[in-house]
Design brief:
The protein contains no helices and eleven strands. With about 130 residues, the chain is mainly beta. The strands form two sheets. Strands 2, 4, 5, 6, 9, 10 and 11 form a seven-stranded mixed beta sheet that branches. A four-stranded antiparallel beta sheet has the order 1-3-8-7, with no helix packed on it.
């Protein structure tokens, strides 16, 4: 069972930056595709970004965050990061880390393709 713990959320003004991190317990962390999702109050959980498990990892982004957010991973530290720049009030949500074993799932943005989830970290962007 993989345990995921997010950190780094907080309150930031619009236009600011924030980095959230996710630490994994699994020794075979490098074998997992890692993703970030978010859920705003009253809305469904939505895909934000993902990074593949393969060497020279491939990244995937939701259109709403392309050019502003960057996902990265450090397999030695068993960690995945989401650097968020030029934040907007509509980015306010709980951000969840998720893990899918192996190569990126065919439906990279579908929550049910991921096997393990963290508890989330709140990101609030004020206008």
């Amino acid at each position: 069972h993989v345990q995921l713990v997010e950190s780094g959320g907080g309150l930031v003004q619009a236009g600011g930056s924030l980095r959230v991190a996710c630490a994994a317990s699994e020794r075979t962390f490098s074998s997992y595709t890692m993703g970030w999702f978010r859920q705003a109050a009253g809305k469904e959980r939505e895909f934000v970004a993902a990074v593949a498990s393969i060497v020279g990892p491939t990244t995937y982004y939701a259109d709403s965050v392309k050019g502003r957010f960057t996902i990265s991973r450090d397999n030695a530290k068993r960690a995945v990061y989401l650097q968020m720049n030029n934040l907007r009030p509509e980015d306010t949500a709980v951000y969840y880390c998720a893990a899918a074993f192996g190569r990126p799932p065919r439906r990279i943005g579908a929550p049910d393709e991921y096997d393990y989830w963290g508890r989330g970290t709140q990101v609030t962007v004020s206008s």
